[in-house]
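Subject: Interface between my chains keeps coming out wrong

I've been trying for a while to get a sensible model of this assembly. When I model each chain on its own everything looks fine, but I need the whole thing in one frame so I can look at the contacts. Pasting all components below, labels as-is. Any help appreciated, I'm running out of ideas.
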Amino acid sequence: MKIEMKHGAGGSYMDKLLRDEIISILSSDGNVEVPLSYMDDSSVIDGIAFTTDSYTVRPYFFPGGDIGKLSVSGTVNDLSVIGAVPVALSSGIVLREGFDMDDLRRIIRSMRETLDYAGTRIITGDFKVMEHDKMDGIIINTSGIGKRSPYLERNFEIVNSYSPREGRWLLDRNLRDGDILIVTGYIGDHGVSVLSSREGISFETDVKSDVQPLNRMFEEALKVGGIVSAKDPTRGGLANALNEMAEKSQVGMIIEEERIPVRESVRSACEMLGIDPYEIGNEGKAIIGVVPEMADDVLKALRRTSEGMHSEIIGRVVKDLEYVILETSVGGRRIMERPIGDPVPRIC
Amino acid sequence: MKIEMKHGAGGSYMDKLLRDEIISILSSDGNVEVPLSYMDDSSVIDGIAFTTDSYTVRPYFFPGGDIGKLSVSGTVNDLSVIGAVPVALSSGIVLREGFDMDDLRRIIRSMRETLDYAGTRIITGDFKVMEHDKMDGIIINTSGIGKRSPYLERNFEIVNSYSPREGRWLLDRNLRDGDILIVTGYIGDHGVSVLSSREGISFETDVKSDVQPLNRMFEEALKVGGIVSAKDPTRGGLANALNEMAEKSQVGMIIEEERIPVRESVRSACEMLGIDPYEIGNEGKAIIGVVPEMADDVLKALRRTSEGMHSEIIGRVVKDLEYVILETSVGGRRIMERPIGDPVPRIC
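Reply #2:
Try treating it as a single job with all components included. I did that and got this:
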């Protein structure tokens, strides 16, 4: 068997490969609070949240961002969505021989600006160069370590006063019947932006990537309290993230389609290209599950932040349902399936 | 300006690029105990040691090891040489579309075996696939987090009873006049092994890579105490590591050439290829600086371990000397210069 592009595209195809061939061999969960086998956005050991991502996006400059901003934001967000505050990041840069020095400088400066915005730093790094016939461009791995948000304890006290949970972190598996699902803004911007800037793809759009670090937004939401679960819908988009949360929590969901924020320009680009906006990646959005009693307060707090100003309640968690159901106001119902993979390859 | 292969080859050329173009922009050292600007093997923040490496070695199977064993060992060693015990590793795998599934399985199993030997684990990961015309083979990034070795406190009490230091970790910059330098075994094995298995290089050798995790060996040495500094001589080999330690510590060194352990087969391969065995990379060795009063005891402890059984005292630290000097028993003296880069590209 050979590796295919869809093995790396989020979605069910990648999920199966990782579970069967990698995690089953590497996983050793004893004494790990949030282990590899949970396949959550970060793991936790000895009170330290830990996460890693290798960024291979092409082109590495795209409307609204670049691979440097992406590499910092993506890792900050993987810490934020489990309820951790970033302590420090690492950066492993692999370049092709012949890479332009000015492009490298621009990427490094963009990393620095994003670190400053997020209030964190890179404290360790590595640098490799590969022959010109052995790779293309640049790959950046950023790993991150984080500590428990100071607001997480009280957040779970509020959760537990309404609906007790076992978890101490905002894990994918924490959703229960009745929880309210919030998405923190417009869906699909990143995937369309990256696609529109690829060579050979001929369409004009003003869509910019949503790439941004979400740690400040999460701080504001956790101050309110009542959040049970969160996830950033990157590869495979909203459809993948919702299905993954539902599967891990062993619940279903009912999503009101009209409430999902999608820009008109993203919708028309997706229609033209024949792809589903719910299946393409985002890099500055989160799905947040909240106990119903706190949903309006969390929504208000999110909307007061620049990152979450377009937040919407999009649906609710339903037990005794095996699917994620998309509902329209005129009574239409269809299953939102877990995609095989992201229709836009290598968005991150 | 364009990036060249030697920018990624350890040595002085890479050092300058990193300092001028990357670290000067990314570094923010406030409140970081061992910051990025130290360019040591790991950094330390909030008591957590943190390190990262991207592995691009070709071929990815070589005599004595493979990229999987290397990716675990290298990161465990970067933690070990500053005096940390590995807590957990991350793994970011990037594969080329078409990569053979059996090769992937073999690499993953090798990672697992090395993790088990080192007594640590991978708790978080990422997986990407690139188009067949965009990269070659496999790249693995492993980052690692570690905690302070339980023996480090007493180790420094012993150091300070003989020769007080400011440092609390085994940093490159900790060497002082009179310290004894130990190398923990044969030099050059990894570079020659990798080179011998490359296509188009026609020489026969029985040399196997020394790739191995050194955390157990460091535990035994730290139990004895008196260690001030340590470094693993990877890219750029012994010559690069010694010069880097000397520069950072603002001292010189006198190295007795006959005492440097080099296998006859490595020496003859290097002669044939016209390369310097002191400049090629190792992946299972350390240079250890010890206060003179404890040097024999540390040497004995190292020799009792399987990883360090061929350890030798190779020289001493001398203040008021600006160079690393190689001395022969017949009175010859020459400067061991810092290499521009490793003569064998991409050994890790």
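Reply #3:
Confirming on my end. Chain A has one domain: 5-29+38-335.
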